[in-house]
Amino acid sequence: MITLEYLRSFRIFGYAIFDLSLSFLGMFLLAPILSKLFLRIGINIPKMNWVYLTLPIGIVAHLLVGTMTPMTRQFLDLNGYYILKLVILGSLIMGFWGITIVRK
């Protein structure tokens, strides 16, 4: 039987591939529901933008609950991890790029 620890043992740049892929897959599956909910309040967020916003939302969520994951810790480190910060900033920009306000 494959355990969760075994699945999380495969890493790229120190991040568990299983965790990252599950995060993106989960956001991809939730995107249609989230887009419909936000459309009800007048904000049109394309489904693909939710996938771009996966990592920034994840960092904010971990900060709100007080869990310091390696990515959150590295993102908040002022003295390094600039590529990670550029990736997060780029995905934040791509995530906000197509959002529009719908007039009712």
Write out key terms for the chains shown.
8% strand; 104 residues; two-stranded antiparallel sheet; globular; 4 strands; mainly alpha
Bin the helical content.
Answer: 55-70%
Largest sheet: 2 strands, antiparallel
SSE order, one letter for each helix or strand: HEEHEHHHHE
- Largest sheet, spatial ordering of strands: 1-2
Uncertain stretches of 5 or more adjacent residues: none
Shape: globular
Describe the protein's architecture and organization.
With 104 residues, this protein is mostly helical. It has six helices and four strands. The strands form two sheets. A two-stranded antiparallel sheet has the order 1-2. It is globular, with a radius of gyration of 16 Å. The termini are far apart. The mean pLDDT is 94.
SSE diagram, text form:
Layout: H1 4-7, E1 11-12, E2 15-16, H2 17-40, E3 43-44, H3 47-52, H4 54-65, H5 70-76, H6 82-97, E4 100-101
Antiparallel strand pairs: 1-2, 3-4
How would you sum up this structure in a few lines?
The chain is mainly alpha-helical.
